[in-house]
Structures are given as C-alpha cells and as structure tokens.
Design brief:
This protein is α+β, with helices and mostly antiparallel strands. The chain has helices spanning 3-23, 142-172; strands at residues 37-40, 44-46, 50-56, 63-69, 73-79, 86-91, 99-107, 110-119, 131-133. It is built from 2 helices and 9 strands, in the order H-E-E-E-E-E-E-E-E-E-H. The strands form 2 sheets. A 5-stranded mixed sheet has the order 2-8-7-4-5, with no helix packed on it. The radius of gyration is 29 Å and the shape is rod-shaped.
C-alpha cells in the first residue's frame, strides 16, 4: 500500500473517531433547569398554624410531592410552573407532635429536605425564613471533553498534513 493511501486511511479513521466522540453524551444523566432548592415559610410553625413549602429548579410540568416527616403528614403534590417552582401550604394539625421535624420535597428522582420546628400553640414562631438547598456535586465536563477531543483531532490532522507535505518536498528535491 502506498504511503498516500495510509495517510488517507489515517485521516478517515481520525475523522470517524472525532465524529463518534462528539456524538457521545453522558448516559442516564438527568437535566434540571436550575439548582434544586427547597424553601419553607419559616424555621418554625405553631400547632394550628400554616406552613408553606416551595421547591424550585424542577422541570416545567414535573410533579413535586411534599411530606412533613417524623409523624408523616402528606402536604400534597403540585405541578412545577413555567419557572420550575411548586408551592404547597398546609395547616398544621392542633395535635401534631411538637419538636424538630423535616419537610421533604421530591421532584423526579431528586429529594431535598428542610428542617422545621413545630411549636405548641402558646409559642410564637420566628419570622426568619429557612432556606435549604442541595449542594452542587460533580461536574458537567461533557463540553470540555468534546473540546479536548476536537483539539487532539485537529492536532493529529496537522501532524498528518505536515508529514505529507514534508514527504512531497523531499520526493520533489
């Protein structure tokens, strides 16, 4: 086989590899429009008082389910609005156990929680809102991977072209 044929086959293989790698994406990745957060109307609520819970960062139209845990109380399910947010408001039963509890919000396969203190009716709840957000973990390296593969492919192509040009100039001399 002639060297020009080898160079041509190498370039074709390199082009196919780059095309394949640029078309690959992370398997099973679930994309959400923003960082998921759960927010409560306050850090505490009295028995018989109202508690609101909001979850943001869900996909538009996705169901969001809220539960007040310890003595599980279903707060309800809502559909994320056009901004990916859903909010529920409930009245805490007068006989609901006092003390620390956790509100969970589930959006798709993601579950977040926020702490709330249920106080007896005689105690006035604090007014500062409690905000808990899920920390961002991992990274989205898909773009960097594709860019790196592209740069390697371009570099390889330049080496092949330079090698072919050098061979032509050497054979012409």
């Amino acid at each position: 086989m002639r060297r020009s044929g080898v160079v041509g086959m190498t370039m074709a293989a390199l082009a196919l590899t780059v095309t394949f790698l640029l078309g690959v994406s992370a398997a099973g990745a679930q994309s959400y429009p923003g960082s998921l957060t759960i927010t409560l109307s306050g850090p505490s609520v009295s028995q018989g008082g109202t508690l609101s819970a909001s979850m943001t960062g869900c996909a538009v139209g996705e169901s969001i389910h809220f539960v007040l845990n310890s003595d599980p109380l279903d707060m309800g399910t809502v559909v994320a609005d056009g901004t990916g947010k859903g909010t529920v408001t409930i009245t805490i039963p007068a006989d609901f156990p006092t003390g620390p509890h956790t509100v969970t919000g589930t959006c798709g396969s993601q579950t977040l929680s926020a702490n709330v203190e249920v106080l007896s009716r005689s105690v006035t709840p604090a007014t500062n809102p409690a905000v808990t957000s899920l920390p961002v973990t991992g990274s989205d390296t898909d773009l960097f991977l594709r860019g790196g593969v592209s740069l390697v492919a371009v570099g390889g192509l330049l080496v092949v072209v330079a090698f072919a040009a050098k061979r032509r100039s050497a054979s012409a001399a």
